[in-house]
Amino acid sequence: MIQLRRRTAARYGAAFAAALMVLTGCSSGAPGPRSMSAAGTSPPVPSPAPLAWSACGKNLECATIKVPQEYTDPEGAQIPLAVMRHRATDPDHRIGSLIFNPGGPGVSATETLRNLPRTAGTPGAFSPAVLAGFDVIAMDPRGVGASQAVRCLTDEQRADAAGTEFDPSVPGGKPLPRLLADAVAFTDGCVKHQSKKFLASLSTDNVARDIDQVRSALGEDKITYYGLSYGTVVGPMYATLFPHRVRQMVLDAPVDTNQWFGDSLPFQHDVAVASERTLNAWFETCRSEGTAVCPFGAGDPQAAFDTLIETLEATPLKVAPVEGVTPGGELDGAMALETTRALAGDQNAWPLLTSALLAAQKGNGAALHTMWSSVTVSPFPVPTAMFETHTAVRCADWKTPSGIAAHKAAAAKATAEAKRIGVRAAYSALNCARWPAPNKDRVTKPLTGSGAPPALVVAGRLDPVTPHHWAENTTRTLDSAVLLTREGVGHGSYGINSCVNKAVDAALLHGTHPADGTVCKTDTPATTRPLVPADR
After folding, report:
1. Phi first, then psi: what are they for 137, rounded to 5°?
2. What is the DSSP string of 261-297?
3. What average pLDDT does the segment 418-429 reach?
4. Sign of the CA dihedral 210, 212, 213, 214?
5. Are 225 and 250 in contact (CB under 8 A)?
6. Least buried of 18, 98, 175, 501, by fewest C-beta within 10 Å?
């Protein structure tokens, strides 16, 4: 249980600690063949100057690189990108540079790298051996983090979006006319805050070209690459455009790139079903462990959960502010559902989820509310800090139907096949349906990585965001790849499983892979036993 707490606390950071405090009453002052677009034949780009590094933290250096906004016009408008380097801790045995993308899209790579020492035991946390052998390089992709982060909403609109307007019984959370009006306001705001040309340039193929500019500025002939989630779209794109520049590549929690660049509605449907499966896994584990271990629902956690969501939506719980923990507010059914979706997707967080649900049943919504405010990575449009960037990158890549009929049909299918999460997923691609900055020259050929070394593809058996069959498809799409499967529930495997850690380290450091189809068991069996006794 101590190990379980440490991993969960590392992943969710301060929000976990705050949730645990309020639970215990403590406080703190502290589709089909595709072709290569014209983007594949861009004119030569001048080599960038070496990066000018300056110290920006313990063993960290920061720099800025300017890259073409459009590689079809390399002498035109330039975009400044933030780059950070964690120097190899054993410089005498340095292997080279390891570039990583932590996903999203929209997660800041530089902030992730800065926080790595405090996030051991979380997906993407590099081992001491990897940190010893590589300069780890983080580049905030264009439109993300310190690289001109996309902005589409005003502060007031953001505050409104974070309110209690969503109805968990209505597909999309709001009546369709409201959703359409929101999409208009969002997309209009995007072009108000930045140019259409900039928004159209946020495609993954440009991100891959940016990485090669960084490689050149580093003076490296080849790079090693680790990508998590959306980072597994960036990696194959880079390996396809620059196969001779890849030393080794690991793809963790992979996205099916054929789906990513295809019709976005089936893509979103797969995500909804995957998320529903992890929630069902929590229900089934709670039921099978019995009420002595998991008292929530007295043997029928699904019925109890549905009742709780309906009750909270009808009468939201007031959450009092606690200094250093939470500013307080209200917890309604939609917020509780979204928090549950996030926590159920990580089996190490299941004990916290059980405790938070039990507390909410008793009228204490502080833990769920505190955790809700920390849910910053979601496959669906929720009011988070990275929502605007997340949407902008997806819309630059996706092929989304513009007709509302297709979205209605997809919403009906999602709510039928994913009873709880499908409602949240419904209509989640409306912003892309009316995206005002279409990217007409994106790379659309299959990302095979032909000519690059074999990639190690790592997938969780029950991943709430990237289902396992996407990993199977990724392995088939790449010309050369090995699939490693981790049993259990969770998004991302490296850093949380000793078997996976060993395999990934061997791939990154030595270029050696396990046998294709190897399966890693979980280090710690999943349990729904609450962190806090039910009578607290």
Report:
1. -110, 125
2. TSBHHHHHHHHHHHHHHHHHHHHHHHHHH-TTT--GG
3. 92
4. positive
5. yes
6. 175
With CA atoms as reference, report the closest residue to 461 among 377, 525, 521. 521
Residue 29: CB atoms within 10 A of its CB come to 6
Find out whether 470 and 258 touch, Cβ atoms under 8 Å: no
Residue 353 or residue 43, greater confidence: 353
Comparing CA positions, the residue from 182, 179, 172 lying closest to residue 410 is 172
CA angle 529, 531, 534 (to 5 degrees): 75
The two structure tokens encoding residue 95 = 């292997």
Query: What pLDDT is recorded for position 377?
Result: 43
Q: Which residues lie closer than 8 Å to 145 by C-beta, 6 or more apart?
A: 82, 107, 108, 109, 110, 111
Q: pLDDT tens, 434-444?
A: 999 989 888 98
> How is 33-79 classified by DSSP, letter by letter?
-----GGGGPPP-PPPPPP--EEEETTEEEEEEEEES-TTSTTS-EE
Does residue 10 surpass a pLDDT of 70? no
DSSP lists the bridge partners of residue 319 as 329
The amino acid sitting at 66 is K
Angle between helices 333-344 and 301-314 (to 10 degrees): 140
What would the pLDDT profile of 459-517 be if each residue is shown by its tens digit?
999 999 999 999 999 999 999 999 999 999 999 999 999 999 999 999 999 999 999 99
DSSP of 153-174: S-HHHHHHHTSS---TTSTTSS
Q: Tell me the residue length of the chain.
A: 536
* Interatomic CA distance for residues 302 and 355, integer angstroms: 16
CA dihedral 434, 37, 195, 47 (to 10 degrees): 160
Residue 497 near residue 124, CB atoms below 8 Å? no
Q: Tell me which amino acid residue 106 is.
A: G
C-beta atoms surrounding 75 within 10 Å: 9
Tokens (6 digits) for 486: 């981790």
Quick one: pLDDT at residue 295?
97
Q: Are 105 and 260 in contact (CB under 8 A)?
A: no
User: Which amino acid, residue 480?
Assistant: S
Residue that is written with structure tokens 């919504």 in the block: 365
C-alpha of 134 from chain center:
24
Residue 149's identity, in one-letter code, is A
Does 325 have pLDDT greater than 80?
no
Q: Which alpha helices (DSSP H) does 194-318 contain, by range? A: 196-200, 204-218, 231-241, 257-260, 264-289, 301-314
Q: What are residue 371's phi and psi, to 5 degrees? A: -70, -35
